[in-house]
Amino acid sequence: MSVEEQAEEAIPAVVRMFSGCEDRQTSADVSNVGSFQLPDPAGRAGGALTSALLNTTYADHANTGADLTFKETLITAREKLREMGFEQVPQLSCSRATDLDQPFSIIPPDFEGTRRAVMIGINYVGHDPGELSGCHNDVFNMAEYIKDCHGFTDDDIVYLLDDGEHTPPTAANIIEAFQTLASQAQPGDACFLHYSGHGCSIPDQDGDEDDGKDEALCPVDYAENGILRDDHVLQMLVAPMPRGVTLTCIMDCCHSGTILDLPFLFLADGSQEEMEADPDFEFGPFLTMVSSFAAAGLEGLKQLHAEGKARRKKRRQWLKSRLGF
């Protein structure tokens, strides 16, 4: 079977992730999860992707992305990042081989279902170090864009913000939002996830990650209830998404390059004209994750995490060869 055919079988939904920071572009690593503190936000990359994308597609509150392709959107966003003084490379990873010359949109051309969105912005209010200032604005600005340009309404959007007014972005609430989004989605729906906050790199406890690290998202209550590893996100959000759903994610945080481990990749670094398939992508563990989702639940996360080790190790080897580091 070709990579495309395997992807169709292993990952039911059409999943697209825009990320603003390769795994090698880091602000801080976590060497001891038990004593983990958020990194100093000075010079952080989080937030830059949202700004660059909105300056590309929604400048002056106009639909300036209407006539852009996916490729043009990402390349222009890279130029905006450079203008802001960031060296990070926007990237698009997908569950399908995407035609980058098609018009940019988070709503598929054949859309006939329901729009659903989860917007997460974490400023880590009161945390020292680690408090951020722009993540709430990221969420509100992105929400305005998807409402104005892609037909979403406030009733379609679930907000998780640590602002004292919305549902707090705790680990439990983020998990519930992921699970609800996946369980309510129906074929034909267009789902959207935006995360603006801290990401982190944590030790691979089994020692068989190529770089010795896993990637994770940091809920506001990370100190009490832990972080959300990449496998957790895959198992709760991506694996149970039904066939016929389109899920678009924007992960605006450090260490976001492989938060969603998907088989097709485009780097807006000027070296690619089209999306490339990872020829060694391991679909077997992904199939196990998808098929065992209903039975495994949260209790099965450790087993599923272990099953994904070999896949992610090969993935990082391929990324390293592709990126030249």
Distance, first to last CA: 30 Å
CATH top-level class? Alpha Beta
The level of helicity is 25-40%
Strand content: 15-25%
CATH topology: Rossmann fold
Organism: Amphora coffeiformis
Family: Belongs to the peptidase C14B family.
Domain Peptidase C14 caspase: 115-265
InterPro entries: Caspase-like_dom_sf (IPR029030), Metacaspase (IPR050452), Pept_C14_caspase (IPR011600)
Please describe the structure with a list of short key phrases separated by commas or semicolons.
325 residues, Rossmann fold, eight-stranded mixed sheet, three-stranded antiparallel sheet, 11 helices, 34% helix
What does this protein structure show overall?
By secondary structure, the protein is of the alpha/beta class. It has one domain (3-323): Rossmann fold (3-Layer(aba) Sandwich), CATH 3.40.50.1460. The chain is built from eleven helices and eleven strands. Belongs to the peptidase C14B family. Residues 115-265 form the Peptidase C14 caspase domain. This is Peptidase C14 caspase domain-containing protein.
Structure, briefly:
Belongs to the peptidase C14B family. This protein is α/β, with parallel strands linked by helices and 325 residues long.
Question: Topology, pairings included?
Answer:
Blueprint lengths: L2 H8 L3 E6 L28 H10 L12 H14 L7 E4 L20 E7 L13 H16 L6 E5 L9 H14 L5 E7 L2 E5 L9 E5 L4 H4 L2 E2 H9 L7 E7 L11 E4 L8 E2 L5 H9 L1 H4 L4 H7 L1 H15 L2
Parallel strand pairs: 1-9, 3-4, 3-5, 5-9
Antiparallel strand pairs: 1-2, 2-10, 6-7, 7-8, 10-11
Helix pairs in contact: 1-8, 2-3, 2-4, 5-7
